[in-house]
Design a protein that fits this description.
- The protein is α/β, with parallel strands linked by helices.
- The protein contains 22 helices and 14 strands.
- It has a five-stranded parallel beta sheet, sandwiched between helices. It has a four-stranded antiparallel beta sheet with strand order 1-2-4-3.
- About 40% of the residues are buried.
Length: about 600
């Protein structure tokens, strides 16, 4: 049991004894003592005044005296108006340190064998390469999955590849018309980039056709709907859904190029999945569910044969599920995919990591499934996240103005190399060691910069700012880890034993500050899992690194003449390094042994 829980339970007992009243968790308010005051934890007394019927200071003093007399972990208290600040004993912190400092998996719980939490992320389209928006999606989804694993959840990481639809046909059609049988092998391009170029080519030629139609007096909206290229793409989609052999062969060939390209990018980002679903395999199940809804009278068909769900009683409008020509929409596929995942995993929850522009879509999905009698519809959670913006504006795939994920990682690597060379930090590294370190720093910078931001917030990405070796960045924390490892190597070389118990040690203020921070790590992991927020882990790691650097500068370590103090400070350093490494592992970031 965490000390906060012990204090809260003790407070309830105290109020019962002193004031003959029962209080709930809402009234038992426990928080960390603010840094400018003496103490470790603070009880907010104001909510209890209606029960004690006494002034804030008197109530706080009575409760404080109860804690001193009854709770062995409390050694002192002070009262600031209506706030009771409690100080824990030195023995409490030393005992915690001795129990946990050599625990490699400190802060992590063993995975429970239970119904899994299914987390979907990535969800790329096979008409373009992964871009900066996908980078945030992938990093966020993967990290949320790893954090929930660390919190004890049985997690399944899944990907849904959007491999069919009109956008896919646009790339296919453009390749047929202007591809000249070009392949990744003949062009030297990654397959996803090659296919993406033809998606852009379609848009260029499509706009030319619209402009030509408008010049001939056709209304702009009508021109957009009746441009020959778009009509051809729609016809190709119909052929695909009817199983046309030639269309399917082209579709399989071009998708295979894209998958090969995706795999390279995923590997570089450190992203993996337990299962990959394909829209082409789930949309038919979605159609079956739509037919079921028609039979039950939950859905209705219009005169043009399109199928809809009326959600007006839910405060929404009518939602299209099948077009008049029988082709499906995204919602159709999502109905099928959700059902398939329930059949596959019988999960406790389905988490969808998708941008906040799809909030309405997932609200509708849950409401339709609920109308169809799926009791698990309430277990769907949309982890929406803000877009990633750039100094020069928003990205548009069809216009080719996206920041390609591979290009971004190349730029990050070059920035890490340039910054490191300017600082002359790694002159003694071999070329292989330098390459490995630049890769580690660049990916650490990228991942940390994106994950330290609350998922719900839109963020501005600045590559150069993310590589900075000072401030709230990945490289700063990586450098702190390397600094600790350097100290420990020197200690090992000098034969100093710091792998021991410290039963009689008296903690200095900075030693205690670091141990207090580390004590919170298990709670931070649990809260980050519950709130689906890697930002909590990232900012914890920064706070710990920042605190350690103050500790490093203020207290002598290898030069300390008192053997117990020297060994304790080295042991605190080793514990700190381990927790930084564990925290960063949840963000998918490696930490260097030396820099």
């Amino acid at each position: 049991m965490m000390i906060e829980d012990i204090i809260a339970d003790s407070l309830k007992n105290c109020v019962k004894l002193l004031y003959n009243s029962n209080i709930n968790d809402k009234l038992a308010q426990i928080q960390k003592t603010r840094i400018e005051f003496e103490g470790d934890y603070t009880i907010v007394v104001f909510p209890l005044l209606g029960i004690s019927r006494k002034k804030p200071e008197q109530t706080a003093n009575e409760i404080g005296n109860y804690f001193i007399e009854n709770i062995e972990e409390i050694e002192a208290f002070n009262v600031i108006k209506g706030f009771l600040n409690l100080s824990l004993t030195n023995d409490f912190w030393i005992s915690f340190f001795n129990r946990n400092s050599r625990e490699e998996a400190f802060g992590f719980q063993e995975n429970k064998i239970s119904s899994p939490l299914v987390i979907e992320y990535s969800s790329p389209n096979t008409n373009k390469p992964l871009h900066l928006g996908h980078v945030r999606n992938n990093l966020l989804g993967w990290s949320v999955a790893e954090i929930n694993k660390a919190a004890g959840k049985n997690v399944k990481k899944v990907n849904l590849v959007n491999d069919r639809g009109i956008h896919i046909c646009k790339s296919m059609l453009a390749w047929q018309k202007w591809g000249d049988d070009k392949t990744p092998g003949s062009s030297g391009q990654k397959g996803d980039k090659l296919v993406g170029d033809f998606y852009v080519k379609f848009d260029v030629e499509y706009k030319k056709e619209i402009a030509a139609l408008i010049e001939n007096g056709i209304d702009k909206g009508e021109a957009a709907q009746n441009a020959p290229l778009l009509l051809e793409a729609k016809q190709m989609l119909k052929k695909w859904e009817k199983g046309d052999k030639d269309v399917h062969e082209l579709w399989k060939k071009m998708n295979a190029w894209v998958y090969d390209g995706f795999d390279i990018t995923y590997k570089r980002m450190g992203i993996d999945f337990d299962k990959v679903y394909y829209e082409s395999e789930t949309y038919l199940l979605g159609k079956d569910i739509v037919e079921e809804g028609l039979e039950k009278g939950v859905l209705f068909k219009k005169e043009d044969s399109s199928v809809w769900c009326d959600l007006s009683d839910e405060g929404l409008d009518r939602k299209l599920l099948l077009r008049s020509d029988g082709t499906s929409v995204y919602m159709t596929q999502d109905l099928g995919t959700a059902q398939l995942r329930v059949d596959d995993f019988n999960p406790e929850g389905l988490v969808y990591v998708v941008g906040n522009e799809q909030i309405y879509h997932f609200d509708v999905l849950k409401k339709i499934l609920n109308k169809l009698g799926r009791s698990w519809a309430g277990n769907i959670f949309h982890l929406s996240y803000g877009m990633v913006e750039l100094p020069h504006g928003k990205m548009k795939s069809r216009e080719g103005t996206v920041v390609d994920a591979d290009d971004l990682m190349d730029e990050m690597y070059d920035t890490a190399r340039k910054t490191s060379e300017e600082l002359a930090k790694f002159d003694d590294f071999t070329d292989e060691e330098s390459h490995k370190l630049y890769t580690m720093l660049s990916m650490g910078a990228l991942k940390y910069f994106i994950l330290k931001v609350d998922p719900k917030k839109t963020m501005m990405f600045n590559p150069e700012e993310s590589i900075d070796f000072s401030g709230n960045t990945g490289p700063f924390i990586q450098y702190t880890h390397a600094r600790i490892k350097s100290v420990l190597r020197k200690a090992d070389k000098a034969g100093i034993d710091y792998n021991q118990e410290f039963s009689s040690a008296k903690l200095a203020s900075k030693e205690k500050s670091i141990i207090k921070l580390i004590y919170d790590f298990p709670s931070v992991v649990q809260l980050a899992a519950k709130s689906y927020s890697p930002a909590l882990i990232a900012n914890f790691a920064y706070d710990l690194a920042k605190e350690y650097n103050q500790f490093y500068h203020e207290l002598p370590m290898l030069k300390e003449v008192d053997e117990e103090k020297r060994s304790l400070r080295l042991a605190v350093s080793a514990f700190t390094a381990n927790v930084i490494k564990s925290a960063f592992s949840l963000l998918g970031i490696e930490v260097p042994e030396r820099m």
